[in-house]
Amino acid sequence: MYMTPSEAEAHGYERANKYPKSTKYGRQNPIAARWNSDEQLVLWREKWANAVNQALERCGVEKRIDHRSHAERGLTEQPTVHEGVVARTLEKKGIVSDRCELNRQIRRDNAELRTIRQEIEKLKSAVSDVGATLENLRSRLIILMYQLQNIGKGKVETKEYLNDTKPKIVMFTSLINKIKTVENERRAVAKEKKNIPAWQLIKHQELNKRLSELTEDLEELRSEKARLLAEFNCSEEDISTAIKSVTSQESRLAELDSMEKKYREEFEAVEDEYAELKGNVPAETLSEIHKNSEQRAIEKIRSAYRDRADYSLIEKCINEVDSTLGEKRRKESIVKKLTRNKEEHKRGDYRYREEER
Length: 357
Description:
Layout lengths: L4 H6 L19 H6 L2 H21 L11 H4 L10 H9 L5 H29 L3 H66 L5 H32 L3 H43 L4 H23 L5 H15 L8 H23 L1
Helix pairs in contact: 6-7, 7-8, 7-9, 7-10, 7-11
């Protein structure tokens, strides 16, 4: 039976809701509760993954997708971040995007972690020599320390950028808001003056005076805006880009914190395992373990970072690992030896060229 709202209200009726989330007295609708539950979402994701995998299998594609998270699958790798269409567009134009660069770094780290874990598993299952396991563990400690040092350096650079840029953006944004406020007030006063009859001379004079004051304020604010842009040596478009960059850098800083925590926990776990096995090796064997582990770590870092590998930082990381493990340094580490050999080689080439002249 159809009634107008006023007629239904006169009879004390309420309009029926076909899809209530809950009843009038707070009891939850079981259909809506099940529809909006996390369990139902997981079920949909699982069915979607199964449907996609079946389609991939029919097309002869070996790749498969999995709806579960890294934690549910037992993966310890760092997940990549969402890049978005803006970052992809920048990359196509040849501009390095912070998000894409972060994902590339995460993929390199994950690939390195996968390789190292595979090697560790092979050593545990196929090699009974405790010394080889210690070499691998100490090499891993040096690599983790190198990654932690790089993350710390990245955090410092990001914080310096944010500390330098954010106050300027806040100052400029505050000024823009003031300009908008004065412009809005000026338009309102001008509109009010337009609607006042001409015979109200006193009111016109008051509004003209207010318009003059607002115009002067607006000119001062615009001059201040031009001064700030000149001081910052940028344009308004650069400020807009900087605002987006600050948001991206803040996200990057959070990702670096998460990565640092993860690597720190792994470092402590490897350190405990190394300390547990160290007692089973004679003291004279540790020197050879040091040499081999350092060589292994340098090769891994050189392979991952290539021209960006910092040998002075590697030396620092080796010293940090030795200090953490309570081990004494040899007279000359392998990093110093490599550096010295490289310098001697350069000097030899120079002397050879001088003799030819």
